[in-house]
């Protein structure tokens, strides 16, 4: 039961449509039967017409045969002998006898060369007017006789020249002309016969065709010799006659439209011997009248029954619409509940389900036969404890709505999370009668929550991957550190030569540089990911940068017998504005990468500059090698952080997989891009394209040589090793160094004596470098304006900004580069 109220509506559906269809079916059936009867009547009539046409044609043909047979011997004699007066007398007697014994022949005229020489009409006072007979020029001929049929004429005898026939004369004659046909000529004599038209009409009447039927005697040229109706005005009758003659057939049936709406079927029959046709037609309207007359009682009864049924249906229709208006509101509410996208359940006060909408079956899969007589407890999955259901029932019995979430079970045992709103139904008397529950499927919301949790999990996994990478990278950190510690142990030995010591020191420098490069990569990646890497646009010479880098890597290339070539010399006069340090880093990373993955062969560093507009240039630097190359799959992830082409690459060639990631992001920060073309076993090409601004060479700002031998320097540093290294180097350069292990001591010493320069570590115990600098700037009477240079491992710009805000003049990043320190001291002392 999807909806009991809908069932009621279906039972109340008015039967007027059924009654109407039944009555229409009865009417249609009866009319079909009557139409079939009418059609049968017409077909029978058409068949009867064909029979009549054959009978009439046969009778008329025999009549003409009798005329021909009786006159043919006479015609033969006339054309074979020379007539004398005695012969003519004899001819008159024979013709008189012929007319006497042939009542259908009214008059016979003998012609010689188309001129009358004898006329059986004794009352005639002149010659027969042949022009009024209108014989056709050619006719169908047979045997040795040429027979022509003329137009029907009025009067008792054939028309006489100069005489007029009275219009009241109702007698008609059909003239027939007989002439012998020879092989080489026609006969000299011919006979003109006037046949009584009334005799032909009696043939039609004798067959009793019917008062309203039409019959016609026609010549083959379409001229009507006898007719009951004026069908001669219908051209399609003549067209049908011509087609029948052309086809060589004897008879046909044609349909005729008369007066625009009257329909006839006509049977047409040709005489097989004489040039004439018989047409007999039946009037369908007349046939229909007869049919109506024969079936009038049935038709009347059918009409009365149809009217009665229509009246009954009309009143039933009115009654239905009165009831429909009363049920409209209930139906609307029932439809809304039934079609609601959320699940709606109605139970009695004991929880037995009375109603469930279609959404319940859609979501949970239970049909009426499944939930009838059961409670919503069938949806329990066991994930909610009994206290929840106890609270639900207590709330409902108090007349209050309850809301909560359930993990319900479907018929197929799938679990669906739903939010449930359950309310009691109170009738007009205040009685608790039913319970309405609305359950909304929140699977989508839960899925979104799970996706958010999955995203969090993936982020955590990414962090774990980064942690794993850092753990793996510890190998790269420990490798140079192991070399450094080993060399230190060797240097402590007493039995090493001076040459060995120099070799160990060189190795120590390489290990420390490798460690430095690794730390710089890590710091650069951190800055880029945090968006803290600052780009400086200063004038630089890209050709000079390429040349410098090639000199730095030449020893590594020579060690592997790799030839490095470049065309940078062609662009030595090109100066651009960009971050020279980052450009140096990009090219260095690419060249280092090519040397690492090329066992032997050649590396070409190619430079190209294209002018765009105004002072804008496009700088393209490409590094081509003949190394191991990469596959398509490896190219897809080559720029991803913490990755190399595959795990075997790390094992065989080493590295952290950060170089190309940093290179790509540096290219983007410099408003450019990088692309790679590679083929396994053939080599790899990295192409960097940057948009830069053309500029002029900078002025020479070389600092004058400063005498550092008498500088009094305060060094604030908490690391004992750094104190020893930095102070020893400064003292060897002739400077006086005062050391302070923390910021508090540094403030105290700065208050006691003036210093030329203060070197300040920013992270110290008791008092850090920022606080110490701030106090010196504010309260030191002798060092308030002394240059203070920060020595720090902090590489982020925001830290540098804070340092300068507290009074730091310049920042030197650890590990200290002595040429950079000297340049900074010289700049600030000047």
How many beta-strand runs?
29
Helix share bin: 40-55%
Number of separate domains:
5
CATH topology of the largest domain: Beta-Lactamase
Count every helix, treating DSSP H or I runs of 4 or more residues as helices: 21
CATH architecture of the largest domain: 2-Layer Sandwich
Shape: elongated
Report the radius of gyration as a whole number of Å: 65 Å
N→C terminal distance? 99 Å
Low-confidence spans: pLDDT under 50, at least 5 residues? 1-13, 140-144, 647-651
Draw up the topology in text:
Blueprint: H1 4-11, H2 16-80, H3 85-101, E1 105-112, E2 115-119, E3 141-142, E4 145-149, E5 153-154, E6 172-181, E7 186-196, H4 197-206, E8 214-219, E9 224-227, H5 235-247, E10 251-258, E11 262-270, E12 276-283, H6 284-338, E13 343-348, E14 353-356, H7 358-364, H8 368-371, H9 386-397, E15 402-409, E16 415-426, E17 432-441, H10 443-491, H11 498-530, E18 538-540, H12 542-559, E19 562-566, E20 576-578, H13 580-596, E21 601-613, E22 616-625, H14 632-636, H15 647-653, H16 659-669, E23 672-679, E24 683-694, E25 712-716, H17 720-732, E26 736-740, H18 743-752, E27 757-761, H19 769-779, E28 788-792, H20 797-805, E29 810-813, H21 818-829
Parallel strand pairs: 19-21, 25-26, 25-27, 27-28, 28-29
Antiparallel strand pairs: 1-2, 1-7, 3-4, 4-6, 5-6, 6-7, 8-9, 8-12, 10-11, 11-12, 13-14, 13-17, 15-16, 16-17, 18-20, 20-24, 21-22, 22-24, 23-24
Helix pairs in contact: 2-6, 10-11, 11-16, 12-13, 13-16, 18-19
């Amino acid at each position: 039961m999807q909806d009991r109220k809908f069932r009621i509506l279906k039972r109340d559906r008015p039967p007027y449509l059924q009654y109407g269809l039944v009555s229409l079916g009865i009417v249609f059936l009866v009319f079909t039967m009557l139409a079939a009867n009418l059609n049968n009547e017409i077909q029978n009539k058409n068949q009867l017409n064909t029979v009549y046409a054959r009978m009439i044609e046969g009778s008329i043909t025999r009549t003409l045969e009798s005329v021909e047979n009786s006159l043919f011997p006479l015609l033969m004699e006339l054309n074979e002998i020379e007539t004398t007066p005695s012969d003519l007398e004899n001819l008159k007697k024979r013709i008189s006898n012929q007319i006497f014994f042939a009542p259908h022949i009214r008059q016979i005229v003998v012609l010689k060369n188309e001129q009358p020489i004898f006329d059986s009409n004794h009352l005639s006072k002149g010659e027969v007017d042949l022009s009024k007979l209108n014989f056709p020029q050619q006719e169908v001929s047979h045997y040795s006789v040429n027979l022509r049929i003329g137009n029907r004429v009025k009067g008792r005898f054939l028309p006489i020249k100069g005489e007029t026939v009275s219009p009241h004369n109702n007698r008609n004659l059909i003239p027939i002309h007989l002439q012998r046909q020879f092989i080489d000529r026609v006969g000299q004599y011919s006979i003109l016969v006037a046949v009584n038209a009334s005799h032909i009409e009696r043939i039609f009447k004798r067959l009793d065709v019917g008062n309203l039927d039409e019959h016609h005697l026609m010549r083959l040229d379409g001229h009507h010799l006898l007719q009951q109706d004026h069908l001669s005005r219908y051209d399609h009758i003549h067209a049908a006659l011509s087609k029948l003659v052309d086809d060589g057939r004897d008879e046909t049936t044609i349909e005729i439209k008369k007066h625009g709406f009257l329909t006839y079927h006509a049977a047409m029959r040709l005489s097989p011997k004489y040039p004439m046709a018989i047409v007999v037609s039946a009037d369908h309207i007349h046939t229909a009248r007869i049919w109506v007359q024969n079936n009038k009682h049935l038709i009347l009864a059918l009409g009365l029954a149809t009217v009665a049924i229509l009246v009954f249906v009309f009143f039933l229709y009115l009654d239905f619409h009165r009831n429909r208006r009363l049920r409209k509101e209930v139906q609307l509410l029932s439809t809304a509940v039934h079609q609601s996208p959320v699940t709606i359940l109605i139970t009695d006060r004991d929880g037995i389900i009375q109603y469930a909408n279609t959404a319940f079956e859609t979501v949970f899969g239970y049909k009426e036969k499944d939930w009838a007589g059961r409670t919503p407890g069938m949806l329990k999955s066991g994930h909610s404890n009994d206290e929840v259901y106890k609270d639900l029932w207590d709330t409902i019995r108090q007349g209050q709505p309850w809301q909560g979430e359930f993990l319900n079970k479907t018929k197929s045992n799938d679990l669906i999370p739903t939010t449930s709103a359950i309310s009691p139904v109170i009738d007009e008397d205040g009685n608790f009668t039913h319970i309405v529950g609305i359950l909304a499927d929140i699977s989508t919301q839960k899925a979104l929550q799970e996706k958010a949790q999955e995203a969090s999990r993936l982020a955590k996994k990414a962090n774990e991957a980064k942690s794993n990478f850092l753990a793996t990278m510890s190998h790269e950190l420990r490798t140079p550190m192991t070399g450094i510690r080993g060399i230190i142990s060797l240097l402590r030995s007493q039995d090493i030569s001076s040459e060995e010591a120099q070799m160990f020191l060189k190795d120590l420098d390489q290990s420390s540089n490798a460690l430095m490069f690794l730390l710089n990569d890590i710091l650069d990646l951190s800055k880029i990911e945090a968006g803290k890497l600052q780009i400086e646009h200063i004038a630089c010479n890209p050709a000079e940068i390429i040349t410098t880098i090639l000199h730095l890597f030449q020893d590594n290339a020579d060690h592997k017998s790799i030839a490095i070539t470049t065309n940078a010399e062609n662009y030595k006069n090109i100066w651009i504005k960009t971050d020279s340090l980052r450009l140096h880093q990009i090219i260095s990373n690419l060249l280092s990468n090519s040397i690492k993955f090329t066992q032997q062969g050649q590396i070409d560093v190619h430079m190209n500059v294209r002018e765009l507009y105004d002072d804008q240039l496009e700088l393209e630097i490409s590094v081509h090698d003949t190394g191991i190359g990469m596959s398509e799959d490896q190219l897809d992830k080559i720029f991803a952080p913490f990755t190399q082409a595959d795990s075997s690459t790390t094992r065989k060639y080493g590295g952290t997989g950060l170089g190309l990631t940093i290179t790509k992001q540096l290219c983007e920060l410099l408003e450019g891009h990088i692309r790679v073309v590679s083929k396994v076993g053939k080599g790899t090409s990295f192409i960097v394209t940057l948009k830069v601004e053309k500029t002029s060479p900078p002025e020479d700002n070389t600092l004058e040589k400063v005498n550092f031998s008498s500088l009094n320097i305060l060094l604030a540093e908490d690391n004992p090793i750094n104190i020893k290294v930095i102070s020893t180097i400064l003292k060897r350069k002739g400077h006086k160094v005062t050391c302070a292990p923390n910021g508090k001591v540094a403030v105290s010493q700065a208050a006691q004596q003036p210093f030329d320069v203060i070197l300040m570590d920013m992270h110290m115990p008791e008092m850090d470098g920022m606080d110490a600098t701030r106090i010196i700037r504010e309260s030191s009477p002798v060092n308030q304006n002394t240059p203070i240079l920060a020595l720090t491992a902090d590489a982020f710009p925001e830290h540098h900004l804070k340092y300068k805000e507290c009074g730091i003049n310049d920042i030197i990043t650890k590990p200290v580069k002595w040429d950079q320190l000297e340049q900074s001291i010289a700049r600030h002392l000047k």
